[in-house]
Design a protein that fits this description.
26% of the residues lie in helices and 27% in strands. It contains ten helices and 15 strands. Bound molecules: fructose -6-phosphate and magnesium ion (2 copies). The site of one magnesium ion has 7 residues, from loops.
């Protein structure tokens, strides 16, 4: 059986209302384009997902990763959606399309993408996570727990096919470098880096014996590309599950703890990443708190059977309750750190413009 590709390509091309959700007409525009691409053979199958003000084109195809026709199709779809967003005066219409014209692939152009090429197994459960009001490093802790923490993933202890661990590819988003860690033996080395999620992000997890990719994330940082504040990156992640990989329940388990991520209001605050159902992926309070949804699919000859809305389950109610309590606690800090991000990270927000205005007011102390 030949390898095929699962691509998740996302962008914020306009919010309804403010930055809280996506207007149904933008979704139907994307769905029309996706249906047409399936009819003319570019795609095997598709699903149009969304989380907050971001739309994710979930697509299966035979073109490989970073393929020109797929990236071009996504770009043109986002352009068509932008037209609708402009007509409806949606907020920040066309926000994530940083350049005027498409050239080659989406690298550095604004939209985020996670793509993975593999051979479909006899049964292939795939979980697709979409987040809003946060950054790519938000996946570091959950991915670490899924594929490296035996307190999360019982299979690392019990299943002989997982017992040797996994390989993790970590990207330095500032220096554009990558490093491969072999876990568990290099666990402590990897934590040095992934514990700093603003700069380092896990891009891929690979099976050790076959080197096939089993998880991947989008790692674009809009502010680094644009050189100015354009909202948070709102990343996506693909994780394959079961039969020698973490079980579906082990993949979602890390989200029972709503860990603190960077993002939220004005991309400038720390807040809990709250797992929610698709219908509740509509950040409201203080433009948040940051959200994550999980769409589960069974692949069947690369058809996307699903999605199942995995965080709609009551077993995540406690996580939501804890997230809301954390939100109350953090909000009471107002403009003080550690609710507000540290000064180095505020460099990528609108704060430097305020600093600029005040810089001449400083006088030497002696
Ligand atoms: C967060 C986000 C929003 C905006 C905020 C202010 O990623 O996009 O929190 O930063 O609503 O938006 P403007 O400055 O456009 O009024
Ligand atoms: Mg927005
Ligand atoms: Mg967003």
């Amino acid at each position: 059986m030949a390898k095929k590709t699962l691509s998740v390509i996302k962008a914020d091309v306009g919010g309804y209302v403010g930055h809280s959700a996506v207007h149904p007409e933008l979704i139907s525009t994307a769905e029309e384009k996706l249906a047409e691409a399936k009819r003319n053979g570019l795609l095997i199958d598709y699903y149009c997902g969304h989380c907050g003000d971001d739309v994710a084109l979930i697509m299966t195809h035979e073109k490989g990763v970073e393929a020109e026709p797929i990236h071009r199709f996504a770009w043109e779809t986002f352009e068509a959606m932008t037209e609708v967003a402009k007509k409806l005066k949606q907020y920040g219409a066309g926000q994530d399309l940083l350049t005027d014209a498409f050239s080659g692939n989406l690298r550095g152009m604004g939209p985020g993408y996670a793509e993975i090429e593999f051979e479909e197994r006899k049964s292939e459960p795939v979980l697709i996570f979409l987040a809003d009001k946060t950054e790519p490093g938000a996946w570091n802790m959950p991915l670490y727990k899924m594929f490296a923490d035996p307190f999360n993933t019982a299979g690392l202890v019990i299943d002989p096919s997982m017992h040797d661990g996994f390989l993790f590819e970590v990207h330095d988003l500032f220096e554009h470098k990558k490093i491969l860690f072999d876990l568990p033996s290099e666990l402590y080395d990897m934590l040095v880096f992934i514990g700093a999620p603003a700069r380092y992000a896990i891009k891929y997890v690979y099976k050790k014996d076959t080197r096939e990719p089993v998880a991947t994330t989008s790692t674009q940082r809009l502010a680094l590309m644009a050189g100015r504040y354009v909202g948070k990156d709102d990343p996506v992640m693909i994780v394959r599950a079961q039969s020698g990989l973490p079980a579906v329940g082990e993949v979602v388990e890390p989200f029972a703890f709503p860990h603190v991520v960077a993002g939220w209001m004005r991309g400038s605050h720390h807040g809990p990443l709250m797992p929610v159902s698709i219908k509740d992926a509509t950040p409201a309070r203080f433009d948040g708190p940051p959200r994550v949804v999980c769409l589960g699919f069974q692949l069947a000859d690369w058809k996307l059977i699903g999605p199942r809305d995995l965080f709609a389950d009551p077993s995540f109610d406690r996580a939501r309750q804890i997230a809301l309590e954390m939100a109350d606690y953090l909000r009471q800090h107002g403009p003080f750190e550690p609710h507000r991000l540290p000064m180095e990270e505020m460099e990528y927000t609108t704060l430097p413009k305020v600093l600029e205005k005040l810089k001449d007011r400083f006088e030497p102390l002696d």
